[in-house]
Amino acid sequence: MVDEMNHDTQLFDRPLLTENDLRNWRKERSELTADVDKKNKRIEELSKLIGAASLFVRRDIPDESEEEIEPESLRSSADEMPLPELILLVLKEAEDWKTLKQTRVGVKGKSRVWRDKIRSNPNYFYTVLKRLVDREQVVREGDKFRIK
C-alpha cells in the first residue's frame, strides 16, 4: 500500500508528458517499423521462392501455407498512409531520379495494402502521381520523377 502511494505521488513530481517520453516513443515506433518491414520483405522473398519451387513440386502435394492471411503484427506503417504520402516518401528516399516503374515498385515494396490495390487498379497510381506533378510537389522529366 505504501509503495502504491509513493508511486502515485511520484507521477505528480514530474510533468505527465515530457519531450523525452515523446522522443522514446518515436524511437521505439521506428525500431518496430523497421523490424516489421524486414519481416514483410522476408515473407515476400519466401513467397517468391515457394512460387518458383512449386513449378517443380508434384501437383498432388497440398500447399499448407496460409499466404493470404496477414497477421496484424506484420503490417507496415506504410499500409496506413495515403497513396500520395507514400509516393512522396519513396521519392524522398531516392538519391536520384526514379523512373515510373521504380517509383511504382518502391510503393508496392513498402506497402502490401497498396501493392494489392495498385495491382487491381493501376490507373489510380498514375492519377495520384500526375496530381502530385500538377501540384508541383513532384518534378517530372520524361519518364523520371523526383521530389521537388
Would you mind describing this structure in some detail?
- The chain has helices at 2-12, 19-53, 83-93, 100-110, 112-120, 122-134; strands at residues 98-99, 138-141, 144-147.
- It is mainly α.
- The chain folds into 2 domains: 1-72; 76-148, Arc Repressor Mutant, subunit A, CATH 1.10.10.
- It has a 3-stranded antiparallel β-sheet with strand order 1-3-2.
- The longest helix is centred in the N-terminal third of the chain and has 35 residues, at 19-53.
Using brief descriptors, characterize the structure shown.
148 residues, Arc Repressor Mutant, subunit A, 6 helices, 3 strands
CATH hierarchy class name of the largest domain: Mainly Alpha
Structural class: mainly alpha
Gyration radius, rounded? 22 Å
Q: What's the order of the H and E elements?
A: HHHEHHHEE
Kindly state the number of beta strands. 3
Distance between the termini: 60 Å
Shape by Cα distribution: flat
Number of domains: 2
Mean pLDDT across residues: 78
- Detail the poorly predicted runs: 64-74
Describe the largest sheet: 3 strands, antiparallel
The CATH architecture term of the largest domain is Orthogonal Bundle
Biggest sheet strand line-up:
1-3-2
CATH topology name of the largest domain: Arc Repressor Mutant, subunit A
Supply the number of helical segments. 6
Helix content: 55-70%
How much strand? 5-15%
SSE arrangement:
Elements: H1 2-12, H2 19-53, H3 83-93, E1 98-99, H4 100-110, H5 112-120, H6 122-134, E2 138-141, E3 144-147
Antiparallel strand pairs: 1-3, 2-3
